Amino acid sequence: MRRRLVWRAARLHESRAETATARTLVFDVPGWPGHVAGQHVDVRLTADDGYTAQRSYSLAAPADGERIELTVETVPDGEVSPYLNEVVEPGDQVEIRGPVGGWFVWRPESKAPVVLVGGGSGIVPLMAMIRARRQAGSRAPFRLLYSLRDQDSRYFAAELRQPEAGLDIAYLYTRATPSGAARPAGRITLADLAEGGWPADFEPDCYVCGPTGFVEAAADLLLALGHPPERIRTERFGPTGG
C-alpha cells in the first residue's frame, strides 16, 4: 500500500553557495519518514494573501534523520527558486511534501556497477547516490560523467575533488574548458560514454538526469552502446517557472 504524502513544515537550518546561481539548503523536517537516493520533494510557498506556488526539487543527500538537503538553481523570473536562494534565512519555514519517486533510485544493497550521467543541475540526485554509496560503505563501482558549461558551473566542487575509491569522474565541458583539458568543449558524445562509462556487458545500472534534450541524447547514446532499456533510468526537467 502506498503511503499518503502530506505537507510538513520545514525549517531552514543552513544555506550555502554551490555556484554563483545555486545554493544547497538544509532543512529540518519534523516527522520526515526517510528517503532513498534519487527521490525528490515538492516545496510549497504560501503568500500572506493565500497565493501558493510549488516546485519539485531533487534531494541532494541520503537520509539523515529528520534533516534533508536540496540544491536549487535560481531560475530568472521564477516564483520559488529566487525566494529559496535569495530571501529565506535560517529559522524560516516552508512546506515540503515527499519523498516522491521510486524508479530513479539507487539502493546501497545493489552490487551492480553504476554509470551516472548528469547535465548541469541534473547532478543533484546523482550526488545523493554518490553520498549514499559512501555512507553505506558500498563497494559498487561508480562512474560519473558530469556535463556542464564551464568550471565555474560545477556543483559540489570541493567534495568531488576529494579522491574516493571506486568513484571515477569525467567532466564534459560544453562551453569553455579549464586550462590543460584534453577534451575540447562540446556536447556529450558516444566516445565520452564509451570511454567514461562501463561497457554494456558489465551490466551496469545507468542513471541519466538533466534537461530533457540532454537526457534524450544521452539515453540514445547508451542504447547505441548496447545498454538495455530496462537498465537506463532517466529523470528530466524543463522550464517550469522556477
Automatic annotation (TrEMBL):
Range of residues in the leader sequence: none
What are the names of the required cofactors? FAD
Q: Which Gene3D superfamilies match?
A: Nucleotide-binding domain of ferredoxin-NADP reductase (FNR) module, Translation factors
User: Do you know which InterPro entries this protein is assigned to?
Assistant: Cbr1-like_FAD-bd_dom (IPR008333), FAD-bd_FR_type (IPR017927), FNR_nucleotide-bd (IPR039261), MRET (IPR050415), OxRdtase_FAD/NAD-bd (IPR001433), Riboflavin_synthase-like_b-brl (IPR017938)
Would I find Cytoplasm among this entry's keywords? no
Q: Which residues form the FAD-binding FR-type domain?
A: 5-106
Q: Mind listing the UniProt keywords for this protein, alphabetically?
A: 2Fe-2S, Iron, Iron-sulfur, Metal-binding
Parts forming coiled coils: none
Q: Which residues cross the membrane?
A: none
Question: Record keywords: Cell membrane included?
Answer: no
Pfam families assigned: FAD_binding_6, NAD_binding_1
Q: Which GO terms describe its molecular function?
A: 2 iron, 2 sulfur cluster binding; oxidoreductase activity
Q: What is this protein called?
A: Oxidoreductase
According to its UniProt entry, this protein's organism is: Nonomuraea turkmeniaca
